[in-house]
Amino acid sequence: MNSPVYQTVIVGGGFTGLFTALHLAHEHYPRSVILIDKDDRFCFKPLLYEYFDGEMDSFQVVPRFSQLLEGSGVIFVQDTVQSIDLHQQEVKLASGNSYKYSNLVLALGSVTSYHQVEGAKEYALPFWTQADAIALDRHLRDCLQKAVQTEDVEQRRRLLTVVVVGGGASGVEMAGTLADFLPHWYSALGGNHSEIRVILLNHGQQILDGDINDPLRSIAEKELQQRTVPIEILTEAEATAVHPNAIEYKSNDEVKKLPTHTTIWAAGTSTHPLIQDLPIPKEHRDHRDRPLVTPTLQLLDFPEVFAGGDCAAVQNNSLPPTAQVAYQQGANIASNLKALALGEELEPAKVNIRGTLLKLGLNDAAANLFNSFEVAGEPAHLIRQGTYLTLLPTPIHDFKATTQWLDEEIFHHHLDPQDVGKKVVQAVELVGAGFIGVLVARKLLRMLGDEEKRD
Description:
Number of helices: 15
Oligomer: single chain
Protein name: NAD(P)/FAD-dependent oxidoreductase
GO molecular function: NAD(P)H dehydrogenase (quinone) activity
CATH topology of the largest domain: FAD/NAD(P)-binding domain
Shape: globular
Cofactor: FAD
Helix content: 25-40%
Strand order of the largest sheet: 3-2-1-7-19
Family: Belongs to the NADH dehydrogenase family.
Keywords: FAD, Flavoprotein, Oxidoreductase
CATH architecture of the largest domain: 3-Layer(bba) Sandwich
Number of domains: 3
């Protein structure tokens, strides 16, 4: 299929791609915009744990692109990109269709890296998409059901042991979530929740080492031990093989085997294969094989192509692979695309790192705000939830998700009245004085007043 040349094609519907499209629509971009993604839903990955454990619904965390882009003028195409021809300025799809472009936005993100560990791709469970969350949910429920029915002690131990590989933010958040709600699930089936084991297998000497969440390590280590079942953290333990009923790891030059029916892989990412295949010389790539882009987020050799998020690296500017970076770059790319179309000067992208937010269990989190102060426990949980909800794409989706969260999380969740005042200040400082901040503050203060009246 041949399309008009004067159009912008966005490949990938993650934070960078979707926010580029939404900002172009908002800024009345004078050219047609096509967004291509293999899935029909956007995945708000920082909140995928909440979708997985039932704290949030699908419309909040994995809304359909068709709903998010309704009325925007952006054309959404659900298809798999087969190849990208930078010289011919053409994107070819698995369906056989192809799109010519005047400008291209590369927003493919990254992919799970198994580091050539034997059996990892075949037997370890990733946690990257809605489909991954659904598959893991089914797998764990099946293990718990079998465990409560078996009298074989060794078999039950394997079924109730979960190993999370990777001590970065993803592994820590997954381990904390599992250690809280798996015991609840198992108890509901009539099992003894103390039999649940959650093990965090970390290659390095410390969890969160080299991660943007590194300042929160001490809080994380403490909170992980205070889950419904304490998390066992194995450091300097390198996964070497994954089997259907065990994982092997190397520690102190000795290979050990840990019986388990559940290995969850959170041990890093690699550059998307389509990005690796681009005709970009090695000297214009970083050490992870990602293409370098200018401060205006353009490829060095193909200035009509913009790239952001996990699949690109800004020259002389190291940025963490986080959602807040990706969505801000989406806004910057949109602004520069409009400037380019109007013959105006492009501006260097500006990314403001506002801090870090780390989920550590149900109703528990840690937050490092603007590198100025740290918050832990339920106040951090409220800040994390409220902050991410302000980032949900499109005002209507933001409003619907926020009001439901406020009703369930704050309105109906008991808060210690002695802590309410502090939580108001902490939540509003990060969320801001906008709609969500005002609602949070008003509701919490009202709750405080009600508690005082009862006293």
